[in-house]
Amino acid sequence: MSFPVDRLVFAPGDVDLSRSPLAGSLDAETYVLGAFNPGMTRLPNGNLLLMVRVAEALREPVAAGKVRAIRWEEGGYVLDAWPLELADTADPRKFLLHGHGWKIMALTSLSWLLPVELSPDGLEVVGVHYGRAVAPAGSYQCYGVEDARISRIGDRWLMTTCSVSPERHSTTLYSSDDALDWTFEGIVLDHQNKDMLIFEGLVGGEYWAQTRPLGDLYFAYPPGSPYHAGPSINLATSPDALHWKPNVHPGIRPHAGTAATARIGGGTPPIMAEIAGKRGWLTLWHGVEPKEIVGIYRTYWSLLDPDEPWTILATSHPPLIEANPGLTAPLADAMYVHDVVFTTGIADAGDHFVVASGEADLACRITHVRKDAFVPS
């Protein structure tokens, strides 16, 4: 196979909204704002599966002097409306509501998860399984289900998702025996945590996961530290994948020496791999350089010790994957953010990895990355 292999495989125009979970519920036209950030795994038949986040948005979010949002409630979906003068709509993905004394946000879209089956190399769509979509099913996710990450452990698949509601911004867990039919297992993290990634294998007989708790306050590292304060990739363990305990050792932390990783978060579930002659847990993660509203998202990698995952065996400061404007050029009219690649899935394919990413919060990108491209700094 020739390299590089890098293409968009699924985009908003590939979604049939007549088969959406929202179809027929709203007295308003919707469209696909993005079909992106796909969790990925290999199916028993050898094909790859993407769990695509479909962000379904109102064609006209502002009407009669009010800005509206979609919300699930028992029996269907409804529209909520707030006076436009109370809202900051600078970010096309969300709006902020003033006058509460703290940060209050609502979304311009509601997300659900669509299973898309790909060929073994990830480059062709084999089928789209609308009948197996994962959509809001409780008040704890009334604003949507987002950003799936899938891990296979033995003969069982585990999928973490971010569930959004006024009650909490939580991590929810689903399980499956075939990676197509998913069973809801409950809320597993009860605080704002955007990127929970379960290791694809046990460590010391326990489940391990990367987490990324968020907050509005971080304490400073001492002067001269190689790290700077901010969101970091932490670790947690569990006896059953349901009850999680934070690990005392820090995980991956933002580097003080580069603005490109001023904010970081998990990308792909850690998999066992050999990189540069060392065997360990390979994890791809994102670093964000501040720029305008959203920032510049790039993908980086680290190799973690097989028995002590808080120990980094190798990493690289240059990014592994960056946003590719050439891929999204045919979708220029639909673009609403730029400089964003958000990697969410990885599969071993022999001499290379198949890597799945969300490109520009818009479409699903598949990149083949040779194993010899992982060069430690």
UniProtKB/TrEMBL annotation:
Query: Matching InterPro entries, A to Z?
Result: Glyco_hydro_beta-prop_sf, Mannoside_phosphorylase
What Pfam families would the database entry show?
Glyco_hydro_130 (PF04041)
List the Gene3D superfamilies: Glycosyl hydrolase domain, family 43
Q: Which GO terms label this protein's molecular function in UniProt?
A: glycosyltransferase activity; hydrolase activity, acting on glycosyl bonds
Task: Give the keywords, sorted.
Answer: Glycosidase, Glycosyltransferase, Hydrolase, Transferase
Q: Which superkingdom is the protein from?
A: Bacteria
Ribonucleoprotein: is it a keyword of this entry? no
PANTHER family attached to this UniProt entry: GLYCOSIDASE
Similarity comment text for this entry: Belongs to the glycosyl hydrolase 130 family.
Q: What is this protein called?
A: Glycosidase
